[in-house]
Design goal:
This protein has 7 helices and no strands. It is mainly α and 127 residues long.
């Protein structure tokens, strides 16, 4: 009985040691230049240059939002939110900034309702 147990253990050890020499599977993929060169600083700079345009500021003021409030809100964005907003700016059609203005308005409205900012006088906080 003990000799059979020793043989089983010895054969398992042989298989285990032989398996150690096999290479492990690895996966590799191409890394795009966007992933390397994009950083939160460049995305925030891209958003800031977009918001510095005269037509964007005119539309923001038409909606009743001051440019200083928008810049403060952009500075308060997380890195992920800044990347998402910068990606949306890149996909906007030419001359179609209404969607971005609506997005900024909704972000400011939601933060007002949550009590994080006080931009609009017509909102009441949920707190």
């Amino acid at each position: 009985m003990i000799t059979k147990l020793r043989r089983i253990i010895a054969s398992l050890l042989v298989v285990s040691i032989a398996g150690l020499g096999l290479p492990l599977p690895a996966q590799a993929g191409m890394v795009g230049t966007d992933a390397i060169t994009s950083s939160p600083g460049t995305e925030r700079a891209r958003i800031a240059t977009f918001l510095d345009r005269a037509d964007v500021q005119a539309q923001l003021q038409a909606q009743g939002v001051s440019p200083s409030d928008v810049k403060a809100r952009v500075a308060a964005l997380t890195d992920e939110e800044a990347a998402q907003l910068a990606g949306r700016i890149d996909t906007l059609p030419a001359g179609g900034i209404l969607g971005l203005i609506l997005l900024v308005f909704l972000v400011l409205l939601i933060t007002d309702i949550l009590g994080l900012t006080k931009v609009f006088p017509f909102t009441r906080t949920v707190r």
